[in-house]
Amino acid sequence: MLSCSSLLQEKFMADGQEVVLSAREIQCLRWVEEGKSSWAIGVILKVSENTVNFHVKNAMRKLETSSRTQCVVKARREGMI
Fold first, then answer.
1. Please, which residues bridge with residue 77 across strands?
2. To the nearest whole percent, how much of the chain has pLDDT over 70?
3. Comparing C-alpha atoms, which of 70, 52, 47 is closest to residue 60?
């Protein structure tokens, strides 16, 4: 897992535009991949459920996906998580 202070960001090109996921978005997607709920991820990361949803939804928007599962699959295929 990436530490909260990590500045690592993953990038890839989609439709000619660079997509960058923040370290926190990557962390949240990795926990989603493990089957954790937003509430459980919030407990693990010591943030609110709403904050987790914010990060997951941002990743979904950036990766142009419409579900958490699609987002994880696309991020995994692109080597982002």
1. none
2. 80
3. 70
The one-letter amino acid at 13: M
Contact status, residue 80 vs residue 50, Cβ threshold 8 Å: no
Taking the C-alpha atoms of residue 2 and residue 30, their distance in angstroms, rounded to an integer, is: 10
Question: How far is 37 from 12, CA to CA, in rounded Å?
Answer: 27
Q: Which residue has the tokens 């991820």?
A: 41
Asked whether the predicted pLDDT for residue 8 surpasses 50, the reply is: no
Contact (Cβ atoms closer than 8 angstroms) between residue 42 and residue 28: no
Alpha helices, DSSP H, located in 1-81: 23-33, 38-45, 49-62, 68-77
Q: Is the pLDDT confidence value at 39 over 70? A: yes
